[in-house]
């Protein structure tokens, strides 16, 4: 992630963009006894500044070979989930991580595969995006876990789905055992994930956050299963 240099007047009538300005600002901030609320406000202002300079979050387009070790990136962003509609291996309803991994292995041009953006924060908290590159070991698992038109999230290293914003309509269906795991908006979106699945487990909830809470609890108890 590119670090944006901050600047402030060093003396009347002059402004500097060199590192000394940034160092001075950091020193000043460290000397202040900021409350948690003040700190969160400051972070919000800085995030807005970064977004103004760099634009909204987008897929990383650099080739995996240019990224050291294929490490995933953590990117803090405001509450705007990207719905992943990337060029990824096609997974059938009966697909498995093994078949997807084989597809990726056989792909001579890995640059044709797009990264996957995953939100690793709960809905009640500011989001943090995890960018998974095609050469990351978890890439195939993410491909298998992600349902069409959904936002992919992760909790305790387990992937699950959420409906895309803004304002998905209730009712919501929390699925912890089905073709896909997560919370889905409307029975028309949830039913294909559970119908025909042996011992499918799902519940109807009125609020998206409550559905996500149920998914998290099931993950903590190791009770989620993608059939």
From TrEMBL:
Highest taxon in the source lineage: Eukaryota
Domain Ribonuclease H1 N-terminal: 171-204
UniProt protein name: Ribonuclease H1 N-terminal domain-containing protein
Species of provenance: Boletus edulis BED1
Lineage: Eukaryota, Fungi, Dikarya, Basidiomycota, Agaricomycotina
